[in-house]
Amino acid sequence: MSKIEGGRYLTFMLRDEYYGVPISKVREINQITEITPVPKTPQFVEGVVNLRGKILPVVNLRQKLGFEKVVYNRETCIIVIEAEMGHVGVVVDAVREVVDLKEDQIEVPPNMGDETAMKFLSALGKQEDRVIILLDVDLAFSEDEFTKSMGSFSKSA
Fold it and tell me: Which residue has the higher pLDDT, 140 or 97?
């Protein structure tokens, strides 16, 4: 787990929960667009999009985190983030706002059992009465994560 630092985070929704990623990792936010499926990719990979001439992989973050897939609506967005493996489009239910979190508003997550299920969680942010689950985008969207998932979660061709 990386060092927990205060800073600016883009918050977004998955189910009814707030999640956040460092704003420094966000390149842009786009409305949902046509995604071209690619055979033999992990289940959580929706496919690819052509974004101004650049092909980007698109990940359904709900599925990546083990949640049920839902029908997209007008609030569904693709956040383009810069991860260890390059730019990745991440589908989220809705983008909310950019928040400033100070170091004393960020805590290491408590031990809740299955470490593998929580490995993408870098910290928990506290803002007023809500908790913001902060994701480690470099770990969640690394080449290793994609290749590890290829065998057991591949879509049928």
Answer: 97
